[in-house]
Amino acid sequence: MGGMSHAPTEPAGYQRGDAGYRRITAALFAAGMTTFVAMYAAQAVLPQLADDFSVSPATSALAVSATTGMLALAIIPASALSERFGRTRVMASSALLSAVIGVIVPWAPSMEVLVVLRGLEGLALAGVPATAMAYLAEEVHAHSLGAAMGRYIAGTTIGGLAGRLLASFVLDVSSWRWALEVAALVSLAFTAWFLRLAPPSEHFRPQRVGFLTTARNLLEHLREPDLLALFASGLLLMGGFVSAYNILGFRLLASPFDLPQTIVGLVFLMYLSGTVSSAIAGRLADRAGRGAVLVMSEGTALAGLALTLPSSLICVLVGVLLFTAGFFGAHAVASGWVGRLAHEHRAEASALYLFAYYVGSSVAGACAGLAYSAAGWNGLVGYVAGLYLLAGAVGVLLWRSRSAPSRHVQSMPTAVMS
Which parts pass through the membrane (predicted)? Predict the structure, then answer.
């Protein structure tokens, strides 16, 4: 009943079909592209960095981990800044600063300088993912929020794919420096698109921020069981996803597949299934209920994971396709649900979700190699399946805890659409 009493006071916000809705979702799509092109383009040039700077593969990988690690550390401070200075102002400053740093990165004279610049780029990038979900939750009508969030997640999936492929294509005709430079210029172009399209915040109200205020806001969210469940879901889902993709290349390069490296690199095209599934899952969540779609997406990912077990290339590829689609569908639902449940201090709630998301990537992903070394691909599948079964159990509990209010909410979109 408590949730029902707040419904009449919620701002209407943009709804599907509105010009403002099309504008804000296009802007956030561009923001997702900007962030993930910048973040993951370096992954395609790691061997070239190792050769050019005479460093080990582990050291060259710092070009990626420095960015994601600093982004994770900066997410919560960036969300606090957005509470004080506004969503669009923080996002615009973040996107522009990171794009400028990205243009400078390729001309680093040493590996040490490159890693420092990539770390600074991660710090600058943090303002976009830390603020995007809160911005959408405030400006988009609750009944259209899932679809809007799905479009943002779609931008991140295409951005992650485009960053890797774009740099790979340039490497065929030029050096790693120009590969990163082209990716940086593309990121800058999407930043300009975002700056042009993003509508000003209509429902944002600035709040005083400080260390104690921010800590108090974070603790409020950490006391909410349903939000904790979503944070745990993000950690488990991303941890399993990164684990599978980190090891997949090793399996495809080895017997019985023995695929060439260039073909293995094309496996990232599977991200396109996530582009579609995130948008579809967002729309379904608005209509059928978030809990049901979250659990269904997790089940799809598990089914796909199981399909990768046979030593059949077709089974592996179809399995990876379903696994990727299920992951991004679940991520779109969970991330949008965070903004729906957090009635206040949404930026901090989104930041906690993303912090857990990237912790899952770094910690769970690091453990994947141990499972693979111990029992091969079967061991890796068992490890990831364990993470996803736990995420599924969390999803079922969350679905049950929200079932009564969900039925009330689900009855509304039909009336609005009619």
Answer: 24-46, 58-78, 90-109, 149-170, 176-195, 227-247, 259-280, 351-374, 380-399
The answer to whether the beta carbons of residues 282 and 150 sit under 8 Å apart is: yes
* pLDDT number for residue 9: 45
* Degrees to nearest 5, angle at CA 207 with 205 and 209: 155
For the entire predicted model, the pTM comes to 0.70
260: cis peptide before it, omega within 30°?
no
Residue 122 to residues 8, 35, 126, 398: CA-CA distances in angstroms?
40, 9, 6, 32
pLDDT bin (cut points 50, 70, 90) of residue 234 is very high
Q: Mean per-residue pLDDT for 394-412?
A: 63
Q: How far is CA 90 from CA 37, 81, 87, 127, 130, in A?
A: 19, 7, 5, 6, 9
pLDDT at residue 298, as a whole number:
94
Determine phi and psi for 140, rounding to 5 degrees: -105, 140
Cβ-Cβ contacts under 8 Å for 143 (sequence gap 6 or more): 15, 286, 409, 412, 413, 416
Dihedral over Cα of 84, 90, 93, 94: its sign = positive
Domains plus CATH for the chain? Answer: 13-197 (1.20.1250.20), 210-418 (1.20.1250.20)
94: tokens are 């973040």
What is the reported pLDDT for 126?
87
Q: Which residues contact 278 (CB under 8 A, 6 or more apart)?
A: 150, 153, 154, 157, 328, 329, 331, 332
Alpha-carbon distance of 78 to 323, in angstroms, equals 32
